[in-house]
């Protein structure tokens, strides 16, 4: 449809299954999917070309904001099981892997910093011609497989396709072939007069990333999470309505173990938001919904886990119910504790810890940014109320961390019940600088070290975080910047 302003609107009737869809169904089904304006191309600015040398990374992975684009926004962060590698995925489909350097005796204060180890393009943009839908290259989730040999393996997924990547090192190359010259050209058999034994010669270290498996064509809706099973043979991929079980060795078929799609889509009242396997029990997994409930399923009971074995939901207080209650109760992330006893969930305003033996109410509830309750109307208007924050445990399950706005992130100590708000920004995150706690003031008067709730920048948000599995090292993704913090060096 061409308008008077030379805009072309591409319309679609494809239903988008998200919490936003549940509340703005008409807008999602009838709004423009894409707006294109035709204009004369501007000359390219050579000063805006991205610098090619970004290998040396010390305290944080920072790109010049003048060069930052939508594709540079970090969409997932994940440590491997040993903590020696840290992987990030972005909206441009790229995966950047950082490796922790060995601690130096001459410079003990550096304590093993993370430098770029490998960078590769995991997903490319695609187009579904049957549904007339563009499939973004954005990396939604990355999950590492436990290391079995010298190589590393990780799973990465966009909205439709999961890929298994192998990351390996090569520091030797074979030389002395009989049928090829040193430059690779095929030799004539008539010129071969003697038999040579090929030998391995040292070369500069090369890190190679190879796609070993591609798991595709199994999801109608957008994949929001993947989780590797403790049996190291299977994993699950989850979209808005279904959970599929895959074998790591088989790419052409998967098993649908959860399906909540109703016969009539008009009867749809909730969608699946996240799912994860139990860390020790290979038959147990949990998935959360946009209604604020968590279902624990046992794959030994039936092939299709439509009936859960446990159901976790906190009853709503009728006195506090409002128009936004259903939106802010939607669970954006679910994580088992390392010991497998607890389950942590994050909704818009709180983080809750559930004991697997107690279904009627959470064991602990932590307020992340309760000062935003009075601003839910404006947050709804600018769509921030639909942001999906993640949450993580530390290695001992004693501290939990999650993100907030204004580049703030929160930590809660489960033993002492103390909490702290810290900020990840260029101004106060110089190498080996000590972060100062931040406080948000709700009232009119505020102290010098406090920030007013009206001054918060909602365009700066920390959605993705990761915690080293054994040490107090955290990775925080703030838009296109990755910050790595560690505990204080004595």
Automatic annotation (TrEMBL):
Record-level GO cellular component terms: protein phosphatase type 2A complex
Domain of life where this protein originates = Eukaryota
Kindly state which keywords UniProt assigns to this record, in alphabetical order. Answer: Repeat, WD repeat
Show the Gene3D superfamilies listed in the entry.
YVTN repeat-like/Quinoprotein amine dehydrogenase
Name any one GO molecular function. Answer: protein phosphatase regulator activity
InterPro entries, sorted: PP2A_PR55, PP2A_PR55_CS, WD40/YVTN_repeat-like_dom_sf, WD40_repeat_dom_sf, WD40_rpt
Matching entries from SUPFAM superfamilies are given as:
WD40 repeat-like
| Similarity-based family | Belongs to the phosphatase 2A regulatory subunit B family.
Q: Which PANTHER family match?
A: PROTEIN PHOSPHATASE PP2A REGULATORY SUBUNIT B
Output this protein's name: Serine/threonine-protein phosphatase 2A 55 kDa regulatory subunit B
State the species of origin.
Takifugu rubripes (Japanese pufferfish)
The top of its lineage is: Eukaryota, Metazoa, Chordata, Craniata, Vertebrata
